[in-house]
Amino acid sequence: MYLDDRTIRLQLWDTAGQERFRSLIPSYIRDSSVCVVVYDITNRNSFLNTSKWIDDVRAERGTDVIIVLVGNKTDLNDKRQVTVDEGEKKAKEYNIMFIETSAKAGYNVKALFRKIGQALPGMESHSEDGQRETLTKVDLTDTSARKEEASSCAC
Q1: Does the pTM exceed 0.85?
Q2: Where is the composition biased (Basic and acidic residues) (predicted)?
């Protein structure tokens, strides 16, 4: 993707939260700069399972990885079981980024990847006084407004 004056390449590994692939997850996490933990806003169990995924990432990488908690399926807002506030609260507890998206409608998907790109080590921006500064954390919180049993982790 193009980001400011650079081209960055994002390689995504989607584990889809399936237990049969669980043994492979540590090898994905070990070599990743970012882990995106996704839950379905219409499925409370998928939200509850995100703690396990975040803990797994922290156990493997500590704080040396960017983690983003993503509430997906905002196009099904009328079936919502997890509030935006609950997502924001969990993200704050874990000191990670948060955003809600709709992969189906394309809502906030580009914003998610743009912010991930900006948060990657080595990406720099200019501060108001013209000095270069490295972006270390980006707040992806967006409070505006596929059924899966488990949350997933894309690292």
Answers
A1: no
A2: 125-143
